[in-house]
Amino acid sequence: MTSAVETDESEGERRARATRVGLALATCFATCFVTGLLSHWIQHPPGWFAWPSTPVWLYRTTQGVHVLSGIAAIPLLLIKLGVVYRKLFERPLIGSPVRLIERLSIAVLVSASIFQLLTGLLNIAQWYPWRFFFTTTHHAMAYIVIGALLVHVAVKLPIIRVALGEAEPEQTVDDNGRRRPGGLDRRTVLLGAGGAVAVAVVAFAGQTVPALRRVAVFAPRSGAGPAGLPVNRTAEQAQVTVAATSDSYRLAVSGPAGDVSWDLAALRALPQHTESLPITCVEGWSADAVWSGVRLRDLVRAVGGTVGAPVRVISLERGPYAVSTVPSSHAADPRTLLALRLHGADLDIDHGFPVRLIAPNLPGVMQTKWVGRIEVS
Ligand SMILES: Nc1nc2c(c(=O)[nH]1)N[C@H]1C(S)=C(S)[C@@H](COP(=O)(O)O)O[C@H]1N2
Ligand SMILES: [Mo]
């Protein structure tokens, strides 16, 4: 039934489709990798990497791109696997040494990619059905994906060159000269891929692009929460409600000239400043917000510290994000606040009442809530 000519044609077609989808996938992975590394370097350890405090929307953009390029990769990976699926199990399974390397790199690439996209997706949904620590594993696995991808591209380079150079056949003609409306042609696959990617991205983008909020049906964090701002960890979850609402609350600041502490009334009596700064979670959501409070550098000066020295801001709770080291450039920035108010009202307990850190252009994980102590080095 299948003639040699037809097999060649469909083989060429399949390669062309696999290559185009692969190219789109590789672009997503490269983008995801670079933006992911940025996010990692800002945090581990804070301050080693010259990440600026201006412009304030930069991290929001890079991290939005990180999550959206990862989301876009999911339908692309499924389509790519659909296109090459039969080839994966082709005989000989192992064969020559080159083929062995090729097979191994594909096995690693496919499994690591699935792992990476799946854990990323579940992290966005804040669902952790595993025992490892997400960020460390996600970071380590990224190098494996990119390494296997480079090997894969190197091995396939000759095929990629040919496939990209091929003209697109409009229609296929069979042995008897009849035009065959050949199954899924390249254009259908590419349009399908583009469509799937667009739907996936739009359905998530609303958690970071306000105009798309209504269509963000997949986005778990699209604007609910006190003051219209999402909450990742509530005061109840952090078991901090009693300490944060206690009359004996003090903000204790220590520095070269000794310790000073302020109660809430004294903090409110200090010079107040208002800044419009987005809050950006590494999980990809972000939101504009207007914060008012005391400048961090005013507190640093009050305890004899040098403006621009790194500062540790410590929460009343003990969770993984209880301590934030504010890098020098951010500690010196006049927009870095110990915020008492959000959108013109006292902070909600879930946003960090009585005091939370908000610095320009830093990940949400570094914006500690329920601040109890500040150490100036
Ligand atoms: N003390 C403390 N601060 C914290 C957290 C936390 O768990 N504990 N979560 C952080 C994370 S991951 C984010 S994204 C922001 C979210 O701030 P919001 O809840 O006010 O929107 O708070 C950050 N500050
Ligand atoms: Mo976050």
UniProtKB/TrEMBL annotation:
The chain crosses the membrane at residues 21-43, 63-85, 106-128, 140-159, 188-206. CDD domains: SO_family_Moco. The keyword Repeat does not apply. Keywords: Membrane, Transmembrane, Transmembrane helix. Residues 244-377 form the Oxidoreductase molybdopterin-binding domain. Pfam families: Oxidored_molyb. PANTHER family: BLL0505 PROTEIN, PROTEIN-METHIONINE-SULFOXIDE REDUCTASE. This is Molybdopterin-dependent oxidoreductase. The lineage of its organism: Bacteria, Bacillati, Actinomycetota, Actinomycetes, Mycobacteriales.
